[in-house]
Amino acid sequence: MNSHERGLPSRPSLPPLLLAALSAWIAVCLSEELCWQLYADACVAAALLMCLIALLVIGTIVIGIKHHGFAVVCIAFTSVCICGLFWWGGWAKDVEHLPTLFEQTPTLELDLTGDPAVRDYGTISTARISCNAGSISVRLIWPEGAEPLSAGHRIAVTGSISSPKLDDGGRWNHRNGFAGMLRASHVEELGYSPGLRGFVTSFRDDSFARVASIEGDAAGLLAGVLLGNRTLYAGSELEQAFQTTGLAHLMAVSGTHLAIVTMLLSALLARSSLRRKVRSAVLIIGLIIYAAITGFAPSALRAATMCSVALVLGALKTRASALSALSLCMLVFLGLSPPIAFSLGFQLSVLSVLGLIIFARLADCWLGHALPRLPPSLVSSVAATIVASSATLPMTVTQFAQLPLISPVANLLAAPLVTGMLCLGIIALVIGSVFAPLGFLLLQIAATFASCCATLVRMLADMPLACLPLSSATHAIAALFCILFIALWVFWPLPQRSVDSEGRQSPPLSRNKLLKTCSAFIVPIALVLLLGFGQSARPWQASDARMVMLDVGQGDSILIQSKAANILVDTGEQGDVLLRELAEQGVTHLDAVIISHKDADHAGALKKLAGVVVVDHVYVHADLIDQAFMEKVLESARWVTSGREGEGVRPGTTLRAGQFSLSIIAPQDGGTSENEDSLVGLLEFDADGDGNADARGLLTGDAESEALERVVSQVGDIDFLKVAHHGSKGGLTDEQLAELSPEIALISVGANNKYGHPSTETVKMLEDHGARIYRTDKQGAISVGFSDTGMHVTPER
After folding, report:
1. What is the CA angle 492-493-494, rounded to 5?
2. End-to-end CA separation in angstroms for the chain
3. What is the C-alpha to C-alpha distance for residues 552 and 571, in angstroms, rounded to an integer?
4. How far apart are CA 733 and CA 756, in angstroms?
5. Which of 30, 518, 539, 797 has its CB surrounded by the most CB atoms within 10 Å?
6. What is the C-alpha radius of gyration for the chain, rounded to an integer number of angstroms?
7. What is the Cα–Cα distance from 169 to 199, expressed in whole angstroms?
8. Quick one: which H or E segment has residue 353?
9. Quick one: which of 139, 30, 141, 136 has its CA closest to 92?
10. 3 state SS of 784
11. CB 440 within 8 Å of CB 210
């Protein structure tokens, strides 16, 4: 009997424990917010902490007496809130104690808790410092030239410590529980960490060495899937392709991989004579071992715990609801480690599992009804893939500012390949530790699966409309998805009646009722698609000419548009922010991207355009193309242009976009220093095409006063100025401003940035010269429209 012939049970009820888990999540957010706001005043924080605890306890008792149905919810909220308050109170003590610890002991011993990750400011690892007061979590920046070690090693470190500041970076450290950033000047390896983590590190290191010896993309993919080690593919074109297709969860250890391991072990134990409880115990041990091989990655530990709870419930033959089991796991995780509430991986895992528990069988029924000739196993697989991908959309569209339309198809096609490489890979690593030749052979077969998967993902990522960039409408789209899911649960539409107790199937819904039911869900789906595809429709007329300073935080990105042509000068550092800003302007194609210089706040987000926005050309200073420090930028250029190399420009080069012409005027020679290498361009607007500019302005990148000295006299009077280096103190001189005399001054800067940009001196200087100042930190994206009658400025806020 097909899955769609079995009918469906009634709509699953939501247990009180699920509401308790959601209230606990809210409690963590509230406690973190309170502790952060009171971080600077410990005395006030302690007083308010005691008052809040007292109110929570009293409220729980009162509500529990009067309304027994809310007792569980109130107890969960109170308990987890108290856990959060004490947890972040301990974090504040760690922050205070850490500098003292370094003063007492210049060289500290650290246990690495995470694999290294490459960032623009260095290679980062997470670590834990053991002391008399307990253990303190920190982030470690490895010395330049040092060989980073994986999780499970113990090291001795000499360096300097910086405590979290009251800015966005400090808030991130607060939420994730890191008491400081340790910049190491010298690192000495001391062996493996004590305990189980150190015990498995030797096997994990040997396994990583064997995987890393494989050529091509297969090595990075196998290292991520089998060992949870992302170092071989982090920041690569392959990683971007997986993100574009909505398959990023397959590149690192997740619940999907634990489910595959469980199925593999279950198949091996199926024909054994072991009792059910013994088989469940063996499966749990297998999950723990796999989690250990991954270096006890948080995602692996969470998934292993959830799978273990399900196995225990199955072994005990309990009728406990799957939703209750999931809720119990959430409560345990939030109580033991409150920062997990802010982990995107945890959020996606919970949404995915929640969606599968509630909607998988409903989707199976509808898909089986629509495609009755497909095998039931295929119908169930497709339904589960669609549900798991869709359930996470409210979170992914807001986090990544993109909608991977190809995701359901990509998940369906890639899942068998990932299953093959994971099963064969685990067997290969285990056998290889005993008999190397056979293990190597099996690993090569697993690598074949990995190579096929990488090729498939690249093909899917290159398809038109594989991924859609989204703008500020992401929150509206997320809200519509939530409304759709709630409506599905409330109305619970079935294509046919359930099978009764005697196995007789009642007649299907009438045509009219089925049409009405479908119509109720077509409206929100249509709105989602309209909001998504609507990003591609330009909010401005193609005949208009404008320049938009995008709000990309502490960085630069300027969009030039005229007559359907688009040029982007710099990209900023945050890819999701850039994609959101471009979608806000209706941009899905760029004729050219100009990178002024290599700094991350100007070029860091370039690679994120791959697969989402079509880019024809990427330009850099011609003298820098052969420089080693430009390799990351040039590699990103190859990704986003589908293999075309970065192209060189120098003074005298002119790029045109409709009525605009952008002439490169400096520097004459590249490779001098980072900021002096910054390209400087003269942007001119010619409304009637007579060759005489109606408006002109200077785009300065990070070139400061010394570099600009050579071009100011050449340019003369201008109408607008992109203030150099985010308005830093050394960006301009009074004499240069007097000669340029801009009417409009544009400053691209992040709110509350740690550099103090823009400087008070620069702002006052601009005001004294009569320039109208516009800042992205206060006014958002700044749009400057051009016409034959002049310029008009439209701030976002």
Report:
1. 115
2. 60
3. 8
4. 18
5. 30
6. 29
7. 34
8. helix 344-370
9. 136
10. strand
11. yes
Amino acid at 497: R
Residue of 472, 459, 457, 736 whose CA lies nearest to 580: 472
**Are 572 and 602 contacting, i.e. CB atoms less than 8 angstroms apart?**
yes
3-class state of residue 135 by DSSP: strand
Instruction: Name the pLDDT band for 256 (thresholds 50, 70, 90).
Output: low
Q: Are 226 and 293 in contact (CB under 8 A)?
A: yes
Q: Is 734 helix (H, G, I), strand (E, B) or coil?
A: helix
Whose structure tokens read 């490459």? 118
Whether residue 747 contacts residue 704, with contact meaning beta carbons closer than 8 Å, is answered with: no
How far from the centroid of its chain's Cα atoms is residue 578's Cα?
13
392, 463, 638 from 557: Cα distances, Å = 30, 27, 20
- Over residues 121-135, the pLDDT tens digits come to 678 999 998 877 678
| Alpha-carbon dihedral angle through residues 757, 760, 761, 764, given to the nearest 10 degrees | 120
* H helix intervals, 546-684: 575-584, 600-603, 631-640
Model pLDDT for residues 699-730, shown as the tens digit of each residue: 988 887 777 887 888 888 899 999 888 888 87
Taking the C-alpha atoms of residue 450 and residue 718, their distance in angstroms, rounded to an integer, is 56
User: Position 190: which residue type?
Assistant: L
Residue 635 DSSP SS3? helix
* Tokens, residue 242: 């997986």
Which of helix, strand or coil describes residue 234?
coil
Q: Check if the beta carbon of residue 595 is closer than 8 Å to that of residue 606.
A: yes
Cβ distance 612 to 605 under 8 Å?
A: no
310 vs 287: CA distance, rounded Å: 12
Q: Which two tokens stand for residue 580?
A: 């959101």
DSSP E strands in 355-423: the ranges are 402-403
Q: What is the pairing mode between strands 654-657 and 660-666?
A: antiparallel
Look over the chain and give the mean of its residue pLDDT values, rounded to a whole number.
Answer: 80
Strands 558-562, 545-549: pairing is antiparallel
User: To which H or E segment does residue 479 belong?
Assistant: helix 474-491
Burial class (CB in 10 A: 0-12, 13-18, 19+), 203: middle
Angstrom CA distances, 115 to 118, 135, 180, 286, 500, stand at 10, 19, 18, 22, 54
Q: Return the amino acid letter for 537.
A: A
> Which 3-state string (H, E, C) describes 47-108?
HHHHHHHHHHHHHHHHHHHHCHHHHHHHHHHHHHHHHHHHHHHHHHHHHHHHHHHHHHCCEE
Residue 583: exposed, middle, or buried by beta-carbon count in 10 A (0-12, 13-18, 19+)? buried
What predicted TM-score, i.e. pTM, was given to this entire model? 0.73
Write phi, then psi, for 233 (nearest 5 degrees).
Answer: -120, -5
pLDDT (tens digit per residue) in 415-458: 788 888 888 888 898 898 888 889 889 999 999 999 999 999 98
Average the pLDDT over each of 313-317, 506-510, 575-579 and give the range with the smallest value.
506-510
567/762 Cα distance (integer angstroms):
28
**Bridge partners (DSSP) listed for residue 745:** 721, 773
The phi-psi region of residue 216 (left if phi > 0; otherwise alpha if psi is between -120 and 50; otherwise beta) is left
- Distance between CA atoms of 574 and 619, rounded to whole angstroms? 20
Q: Which of 239, 205, 246 is nearest to 221 (CA)?
A: 239
Q: How confident is the model at residue 672 (pLDDT cuts 50, 70, 90)?
A: low
- Identify residue 142 by its one-letter amino acid code: W
Determine the Cα–Cα distance for residues 209 and 784; give it in Å rounded to an integer.
54
